[in-house]
Specification:
The chain is of the alpha+beta class and 95 residues long. Helix content is 27%, strand content 25%.
């Protein structure tokens, strides 16, 4: 294992001799999603559950304020009819 010398963050008391390299690598690649929140925001959310609850509430508000816009376009080219259905979501913005 590579030994780092003169690293100010590593104390002599740290012992990694029984460490397992890559122990959490698989769990990390399976979708760990860490987000750093600013200290002023963190004051209002004591744990991850409160953050998730607030974000789910925000998602519900966004879903209610979003409408689906669908359009059908029809073309006829040399006797062949083409129909294209397109849908997109559009956020309703209130002034």
């Amino acid at each position: 294992m590579k030994v780092m010398k003169n690293d100010p963050d590593m104390l002599k008391e740290y012992d990694f001799s029984k460490g397992i390299r890559g122990k959490y690598a698989k769990r990390y690649t399976e979708g760990t999603n860490l987000v750093l929140i600013d200290p002023d925001v963190a004051e209002f959310f004591p744990d991850h559950e409160s953050i998730n609850e607030a974000l789910r509430s925000l998602i519900n508000i966004i879903k209610k304020k979003t409408k689906k816009i669908c359009r059908t376009d029809r073309w006829t080219l040399t006797g062949v009819s083409l129909v294209l259905n397109t849908c997109r979501s559009s956020a309703i913005r209130h002034p």
